[in-house]
Amino acid sequence: xxxxxxxxxxxxxxxxxxxxxxxxxxxxxxxxxxxxxxxxxxxxxxxxxxxxxxxxxxxxxxxxxxxxxxxxxxxxxxxxxxxxxxxxxxxxxxxxxxxxxxxxxxxxxxxxxxxxxxxxxxxxxxxxxxxxxxxxxxxxxxxxxxxxxxxxxxxxxxxxxxxxxxxxxxxxxxxxxxxxxxxxxxxxxxxxxxxxxxxxxxxxxxxxxxxxxxxxxxxxxxxxxxxxxxxxxxxxxxxxxxxxxxxxxxxxxxxxxx
Length: 258
Hints:
By secondary structure, this protein is α+β, with helices and mostly antiparallel strands. The chain has 6 helices and 12 strands.
């Protein structure tokens, strides 16, 4: 079973890129972030024509998350995180697919930091961690994947010293990510590549992709029983080099059958 995550950076504007990637990569499940489209503008028919079912949680101009499945039933179990009824951002959707609970998230960026946006990021992170702990305690197989907007360590950033004041790399963000993982989750990419420089995001500016000046901010966290099934993990780095593409590359894991 192949599960992927991809921050598409505008699903309608970059639909040809998404459809090409789905055709070439054929993930069984694809978690998407930054749809930047309200629910009624989600390209359901194009996704269906590509062979995928979908659930989505959209929002005009910003945010937005979706889960796509190929030849697999999808049962939505949650949209939005618990803990703040006033939070209107479309940043989390969750479903049961093939016996696995899959949470797809787009964690707030948090810049400029410090400030209200950074405070919102840390509050959201806290709510997410509480929900993650409940999922872990349920004993079910769980995958939590998406754009975490968190650089875990210096290995995960090109010239990390330039990021020390950024909301993605501030100590509070790194502490929050580590505390989340320490609940009992496995960072799939790092498990299989403990010392390798791997990036998932390259800015549009200063030829970042060409220079491989990137960040690793898109992550797969696996519950213990899913971790035992982990066969492979990687980044479709070449997709970042396509015409009119997102600034993120798709990330994926392959799991053995239960």
